[in-house]
Design brief:
It is a single chain. The chain is an all-beta fold. It is built from no helices and eleven strands.
Length: about 120
């Protein structure tokens, strides 16, 4: 069955780093747009980064709030999110998701989701 399992969350002080990982199985991973979302208490879910592979390379998307600090990558069965210079406003539950079509348009449909991993950044 389809599985997306996140790991790597935790509590850090502002300025610190975390690396989130998402192990995927049960579907044709290479043909999906892969993304990381986050949701803070009382706020809407936000797509923070996305990646797709095609045309011989990988293309990425980052929300303005994380550009220059977060980096998304993928290999054969794992999607990672390297988060540097973390800020308190990065606090939230982070979810890995798989969507179609594969080239990650703005209106991509994310059908598969992980259970989430909590990130807490303190002052």
């Amino acid at each position: 069955q389809v599985q997306l399992v996140e790991s790597g969350g935790g509590s850090v002080q502002a300025g610190g780093s975390l690396r989130l990982s998402c192990a995927v199985s049960g579907f044709t991973y290479a043909t999906y747009c892969m993304a990381w979302f986050r949701q803070a208490p009382g706020k809407e879910r936000e797509k923070v980064a996305a990646i797709y592979t095609g045309g011989g390379g990988a293309s990425t998307y980052y929300a303005d709030s994380v550009k220059g600090r977060f980096s998304i990558s993928r290999d054969s069965n794992t999607v990672s999110l390297q988060m540097n210079n973390l800020k308190p406003e990065d606090t939230g539950m982070y979810y890995c998701a798989a969507g179609v079509p594969w080239y990650c348009p703005t209106d991509a449909n994310f059908a598969y989701w992980g259970q989430g991993t909590q990130v807490t950044v303190s002052e």
